[in-house]
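Give me structure tokens for this 101-residue protein.
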Amino acid sequence: MTRGTSLFGKHRNKTHTLCRRCGSEAYHLQKSTCGKCGYSAKRKRKYNWSMDSVKEQHLNPRGQLLQHPVHLKNVGPGAVAHACNPSTLGGRGGWITRSGD
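Here you go.
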């Protein structure tokens, strides 16, 4: 089992330095962008992390978006509710579509 310099032998060059816009040490020297404020881009970087957690609530355990059983988007005159066999769908409901579709 090795210890010492073999683990930290490549750790002698700095990848980040101080950002001119926000002052944090997140400015990447090779990429020429700041990880905190996005400097070198005109617009300031921001991310809504609370909205990201809301997106996770709408995912099932496999990471797929949950499909709502009835989509009322295209309901209008001439809408037909198609009957579905629940045993073949695993208990999910049917779709409401227009009669011509």
